[in-house]
Amino acid sequence: MLNIILKDCRAVRDNLLPLTFTRPVADIRVGIRTIREKWESMLPGVYSYATEEYLANKFPCINNPQGDSIIISAHFLPTPNIIRCINSLAVGEALAYNGEVIAARGTLSTEYTRLIEVDEIPVAIRNLYDIFLNNAIAIDFDFNLMTKGRDSAALSPSNTVIGDPRKIFVEDDATVEGAIINTTHGPVYIGRGAEIMEGSCIRGPFALCEGAEVKMGAKIYGATTIGPHCKVGGEIANAVFIGYSNKAHDGFIGNAVIGEWCNLAAGCVVSNLKNDYSEVKLWNYPARRFLRTGLQFCGLFMGDHSKTGINTMINTATVVGVGVNLHGAGYPRNFVPSFMEGSSAGLYEVPVSKFIDTARKVMARRNIALSQVDIEIFETLYRITDDFK
Prior knowledge:
Strand content: 25-35%
Number of strands: 33
Structural class: alpha/beta
């Protein structure tokens, strides 16, 4: 089988912080699947990662002793045409778009003798907001690939469907009762063991991944992805929850990306539009400043294991690092570094031992143990966090 290495391009990886503090680029979810899962479904092989050294114990790199591997730039999403082009590569050749390498054949250190330009514009995730901007395209692509030649489980007659019912796919063991589902603007995918409770209004494109829950009376607009084992309620628009995170109560979040093991408490409201309708600026870690985005709508980007207290207000275009605990009245600042706790009145650093103890308790509620490998990752992040403030 092919040996396939998903390589983090350093500049892109840094632009995608804080999400990539705790995972390689390929483990970001956009659409129904993660980037890695998309490649695995279309290009069979043995997959591994070329990522940051401190992540390597959890996400190792497998080198082919014969020096013949497919090296994929992990921020690109696959298409059938790109897969065909990759399968035609010889050792020393690379596939590119506008000179940027999408994939190559050889080793991580190979100097490519021939650059082949692909004849399509590939979808790529280069900035945090590219995740929600491309989520509609990615849901549609994943939906067609995952449901081709398969039959959906029956949808209960207690539901109301607006649009084409063939654009709804329900996996086995999913539960959907008393919901309104609109497929006029895109498909709706409901994963294995997932549940949509009564009174919910869902507008596609929408993906509810394995074991996730939509609480009673939720209002969800596309293009939204609720990752595995998340619990959501209230009002959500064009947001991606990577997995194992909760926004189970009333409150609004839009144009946002939430990492794993996060919790947005009851009444938490995230602004996605400035009062003067002006272009938003977003904190960029490598630049160490706020950069223009060209966007009018932009909400919250939250790293893993971060949370808010009840009725927390989050301002437009806010970036929150890993292990942050926000609470109290007023708007916290638009960039909160990792391992901080507090409110608009002030923030203080959380001891790493306290953070790890909390993370262990949070994960135990889902019967998942915090591994020693994860602890070592967090301890490394804690040591280097001053480099990213």
